[in-house]
Amino acid sequence: MGHLMLNQQFPKNFLWGGALAANQCEGAALEDGKGWSTADALPYGVFGEIMIPPPNDYLKKEAIDFYHRYKEDVKLFAEMGFKILRISISWARIFPNGDDLEPNEHGLKFYDDLLDELANYDIEAMITLSHYEMPLHLATEYGGWSNREIIKHFEKYAEVLFDRYAKKVKYWLTFNEINMVLHAPFNGAGIIEKPENISKTELYQAVHHQLVASASATEIGHRIDPSLKIGCMIAGGPMYPLTPHPNDMMEALQKDRETFFFADVHARGKYPNYMVRYFLENDIAVEITEEDKTTLKNTVDFISFSYYMSYCATADEELNIQARGNIMSAVKNPYLDESEWGWQIDPQGLRYMLNLLYDRYQLPLFIVENGLGAVDTLREDEHGEKIVDDQYRIDYLREHLKQVYEALEDGVDLLGYTSWGPIDIVSNSVCEMKKRYGFIYVDKHNDGSGTLDRYKKKSFYWYKAVIESDGKKLFETEKVDTASPAT
């Protein structure tokens, strides 16, 4: 039985907020000297036929125009009570081609202005150096992260950012969902080739280059300012065995290691033993130099992850029916409901994941993405106010955050929680507006139409109350949560 305590609340210093990616919100695709990025090429030619320039009406070109409207949006985040906003920096806005001799001052100034605006409202920033994008030139001319040359270009980029923003930003992440390179090589590593045509050696060589670049960036950041908190970021979803059959237990263990491998290297500074066997058995020959091994010893200060769903694993090929998920898919769990997109909903899986990671690493954790993508309907209420009644999103987040509270009670050291897409943004891989995550509705649609006006959803007022109450709101009765948004 759950314990009933009157003082159920999150720590006072808990960092509540939201998370955004530059390529999904900023727009201004080539403005002020920005170059094309690999994100601009999605979904128009991931596999060897890059369409650049993309069609004129492609949604990321303008996105939600955060580039010009960030002051309006930051004000709304402040109204919700955000303590932190996770943003990413567009590499192609700083180095338009990736191998430029000098950074683009216009791009650097934009992020200075954004960071200053956040500071005006006492909102901390967390910066992701590379969030599913890199200058397209580095993909087309160098072959993306499969080329060792990219490491030095990333180091230069990281050094510029740390130099420029270290006084303004304490929390940093190197790569977004770094383990997704295995499932989306163009998206994660800029490799322009059909995934089935990429050898495991080339794929893991690209992974290795990213791991080295990540460790090197961590060293650069700590050298510039030792007080910076630099973390890694993985797509986190625990693997449950579909049955208690030992074969399924082993299958789940192996699948979990596909995720943990990336965190293991970041947290422990070396390749885990199980990867040595995996490389041997799969004829994977990764070039790892002695200098690489030294660089990898620059370990992270904390581990962050996204959480949308858990997965199942089975060794039984007949039962291996895949459920859709965030980039990767896995076997469906018969005990769980699913979202409109077929993503299985498992709030307890988040508590499980938090405990799993904390038991394994004993490092502070940060949930940097979690949320519900859904088709939202903007309508007028009885007062003529435009509103989105997204009670389904409130229900989803409430149940997940209750499990976060349980993990805190378990003794997990958790720094904060940033919900994914606190304002509606363009989806990454399929480049559409239909699937919305935000607490703020943006009037923009798949066909590019819309005013870009912002409207507060019902969840906006709910999340504001959760933050204001240090989480106590989560434990109020259903009746309170279904009250009108004005309460």
TrEMBL record:
Q: State the family it belongs to.
A: Belongs to the glycosyl hydrolase 1 family.
Among Gene3D superfamilies, the record links this protein to: Glycosidases
- Membrane-spanning ranges: none
Tell me which Gene Ontology terms the entry assigns under biological process: carbohydrate catabolic process
Report the source organism: Enterococcus florum
| A single GO molecular function term of this UniProt record | beta-glucosidase activity
- Know the name of this protein? Beta-glucosidase
Recorded hits in PROSITE patterns, A to Z, give:
GLYCOSYL_HYDROL_F1_1, GLYCOSYL_HYDROL_F1_2
Q: Where is the active site?
A: 369 (nucleophile)
